[in-house]
Amino acid sequence: MKKKVKPISLELIEAAHAGNIGKVVDLLSSGVSPNSEDKHGRTALHHASELGYDKIAELLLKNDVAADIDIKDHYGETALHLGALSGNIKLVKLLLSHNAKLEVTNAYGATPLHRGVSTEDIKIVELLLNARCNINAADGNQQTPLHIAAKYGHKEVVKLLIEKGADANALDKDNKTASDYVGNNKFELKEIFRRAVEQPTGIWRAAERPKGL
Q: What long-range pairs does 23-27 form, CB within 8 A, spacing at least 24?
């Protein structure tokens, strides 16, 4: 029985997933399209971004036929959604330098910022904010990135979002603010939100931080 031959496009995806730079270079040089998709609708760039392989992502984006940076997988996720979860700031900078869309949403209405705040990687969150994404974008549950950060208990991310202008009074579909998702034992987080809602704009300056925060 003959062994089934893999499509050459799938080989590129597998090489990217494995972090095999040499194989990726060879396949791109032979003319393989970087935009072929696997059964989940993911391209080689999706895989490289998810795993934080910035060098492979750069090869795919600088190819003669460049990878489509904003193509969505079957879950509506782009390379930037996945890159925001990767922990690799160099990768996220690369995607932004190639004009990856900031306001694109996945199947659940989440933007790359929603994904980034779930990781507690403050450098990536700050990078997305400095790229001027919508800090108060609401997902399918009408939750903002501040809701997500509060649910995960990410204190530093919550502070950064509020300092950058996140609306601490925004309500989700259950009529809850972000602070409603903070556990009773999270005293520092509760103090951050208390100070935020006391300000007319929902923002407190760094100089006004509660002592010890």
A: 24/56, 24/59, 24/60, 25/59
